[in-house]
Design a protein that fits this description.
Length: 642
């Protein structure tokens, strides 16, 4: 059973619960989560949950009927994300919205081989490096691995490219030598049920990839995961690598049906190793893609720069070009699955970040469009001149640049008071779960009519602008008999008019473009609606170990959430009740369809934090815990000053 403790539980109440459970021969594990502390109590004797429920300090008791407890969905309804830091201040997350690719040779063979492999796989987008230093070979006469020397090569190569390293542990006696080199331990198929190894490994608390045994059932596999979890680690990644069947055409039979089955049984992340399942390189790419399509959180594949020289598993080693193609295909497939491919920050952006720290160069804030866009003005208003504004080509690119560390902040339009919501960006906020809102502002949109020197209302024949700009100034334009021409942005219109150098053309855009493009302002405030506003949010990445500082000294006065609800009568009503009970005034509620889940919606909402609130972060965190009781997938997008 899982015993959720009250937040204000006293030490004596805790001790009291522990001694009662111990008296019933239950093994207790205390798990301190970010939001709550729970006791996982496991034992052979059945116990009436009501006996525990009534104890002081107990919030609730969740009985678990499965033989595996801590690995079960009942124990933890939301997906677990295993976080693995690299040496570039970044955290690789397995199990969230990002797909990871672990690649490298079967075995570490030499220093040069590892450096070459790491270079190749990182260039194609791998996020972790694999390589065995202790190889569990079927024959004692096959290459057994380089041992500690191999671990050194693996680590050196991984560090050079910012890739955490994954390597197999075959016996617990190797823990002392391995521990300084390894980021993620792999338990191989042959050791899945080596329970003594699992117990010792679990106690380290380090991430573990647990491969499925050659002939293990899904339940046996989860029981092995339970050994790891109950020994002290919460960082377990399951890896399907093919099982033994009567089929001989492939090395093993890749059981992709295990993925959807596991999803309902466990909260643990799942990756797939198509290399050991297929055994032949040409058959691996389609199954790597199928793994992602089946819902895997990533893949682990064997890649060798010279497969023909590989000392183990040569036939299944992919050429770097094959791996590169797989990664390009996964990039295309990811959006279909509502996911993004994880990226390692480039050394350049790492160097840049460090150099900026030293020279106090300004952080970068990206916006979509050209110089002169309203978003650029929003950056100026929000940051004054403490950041450097840079352009990207689309809203999606703003998010990607921030995630990749190419920019520190992004300025994202979210809603216009006359044109409505910018749905693309609501969707980006839910899709990019490693992005937070760190600030917001509302900008008054005032359009002006710009033209080259010498032009007047009488000389103009054509007017250029974004369709939104043209429609927002329709009253003014109606009074003129001009030819209206659409452009991709309002700033593009200004650039075009400047380039054409004719007094017959004018642009409708922000007046700041006059300076940028050498134009004159013929008329200001030509918009129909004088109260025309766009709300922007400022985003930053939260997967960086040292998150960029929250902007400004101002106390947070806004919080944004996303959540989903069960598909049942009154589910949204219940969720909204939590806001009412917390006296949180909601000033925005949007619903967006969830890709791939027809008729299920993300609810996005903004709430105002009352000014008398002393500790907004604590208050909103506690509130989100309450919301989780009636809503699903609750995520705080940000607690920030607007
Ligand atoms: C390996 O990953 O190199 C390996 C030996 O895998 P498995 O345990 O799945 O056979
Ligand atoms: Mn191998």
């Amino acid at each position: 059973m899982v015993i959720v403790l009250k937040k204000d539980i006293s030490t004596s109440e805790k001790e009291n619960i522990k001694s009662l459970l111990a008296a019933r021969s239950l093994k207790i594990n205390e798990l301190k989560g970010e939001e709550s502390t729970v006791f996982a109590a496991v034992g052979k004797l059945a116990m009436d949950v009501r006996e525990v429920e009534v104890l002081p300090g107990v919030e609730k008791v969740i009985p678990i009927s499965k033989p595996y407890k801590m690995a079960s969905r009942e124990f933890k309804p939301e997906n677990s994300i295993v976080e693995i830091p690299n040496n570039r201040g970044q955290i690789i997350r397995v199990g969230g919205s990002r797909l990871v690719a672990i690649a490298g040779p079967c075995a570490v063979e030499s220093r040069q081989q590892m450096l070459d492999a790491a270079k190749a796989v990182s260039a194609s987008g791998a996020t972790m490096l694999r390589g065995g230093a202790y190889k569990p070979r079927t024959s004692p006469y096959s290459f057994q691995g380089l041992g500690e020397e191999g671990l050194k090569y693996l680590k050196e190569a991984g560090e050079k490219y910012g890739l955490p390293v994954v390597t197999e542990i075959v016996a617990s006696e190797y823990i002392p030598v391995m521990k300084d080199y390894v980021d993620v331990y792999q338990v191989g198929a042959r050791n899945m049920q080596n329970f003594e190894l699992l117990k010792r490994l679990g106690a380290l608390g380090k991430p573990v990839i647990l491969k499925r045994g050659l002939s293990a059932t899904i339940e046996e596999w989860l029981m092995s995961a339970e050994y790891l979890l109950s020994s002290g680690t919460d960082k377990v990644i399951l890896c399907e690598r093919g099982i033994r069947t009567y089929e001989k055409a492939t090395r093993n039979t890749l059981d992709l049906s295990a993925i959807p089955v596991l999803r309902s049984m466990t909260h643990l992340p799942i990756i797939v190793d198509p290399s050991h399942a297929l055994g032949v390189r040409d058959k691996i790419p389609p199954m790597a893609l199928a793994s992602i399509a089946a819902g895997a959180d990533g893949i682990i594949v064997e890649v060798h720069c010279h497969p023909e020289q590989a000392l183990s598993d040569a036939a299944q080693a992919l050429y770097p070009a094959q791996f590169d193609k797989i990664m390009r295909d996964i990039e295309s497939l990811a959006p279909v699955m509502g996911k993004e491919v994880a990226h390692i920050r480039s050394v350049d952006s790492q160097k840049k970040a460090n150099a900026e720290k030293i020279t106090h160069k300004k952080p970068i804030c990206v916006f979509s469009g050209m110089k002169g866009a309203y978003a650029e003005q929003a950056i100026e208003n929000f940051f004054e001149d403490s950041v450097e504004a840079q352009t990207v080509d689309s809203f999606d690119e703003i998010f990607q640049a921030v995630v990749d560390g190419k920019a520190d902040y992004g300025m994202v339009p979210i809603e216009n008071s006359t044109a409505g919501s910018v749905y693309n960006n609501y969707d980006n906020l839910t899709r990019y779960e490693d992005i937070s809102i760190v600030g917001a502002l509302t900008l008054r949109i005032q359009h002006s009519l710009l033209a080259v020197k010498g032009a007047s209302l009488e000389t103009i024949k054509n007017v250029y602008s974004h369709p939104q700009g043209l429609s927002q100034c329709s009253n003014f334009l109606k009074s003129q008999k001009w030819n209206a021409v659409d452009t991709v942005s309002t700033a593009t219109a200004a650039a075009l008019v400047a380039e054409k150098k004719s007094t017959e053309n004018a642009a409708i855009c922000n007046a700041r473009n006059a300076k940028i493009y050498g134009l004159e302002v013929l008329k200001e405030g030509v918009q129909n609606e004088q109260n025309n506003y766009t709300r922007f949010v400022v985003i930053a990445a939260n997967h960086i170990e040292e998150p960029v500082k929250q902007w400004g000294e101002q106390k947070p006065n806004m919080a944004s959430f996303v959540f989903t609800t069960k598909n049942e009568a009154g589910a949204l009503y219940d969720a909204l009740g939590v806001f009412k009970n917390a006296s949180l005034s909601m000033n925005r509620l949007e619903s967006r369809p969830i890709a791939g889940k027809p008729w299920k919606y993300w609810f996005y909402c903004d709430v105002v934090i009352p000014s008398e609130c002393e500790n907004p972060v604590e208050m909103i965190t506690a509130f989100s815990e309450n919301l989780k009781k009636v809503a699903e997938d609750v995520r705080i997008l940000g607690i920030y000053a607007e």
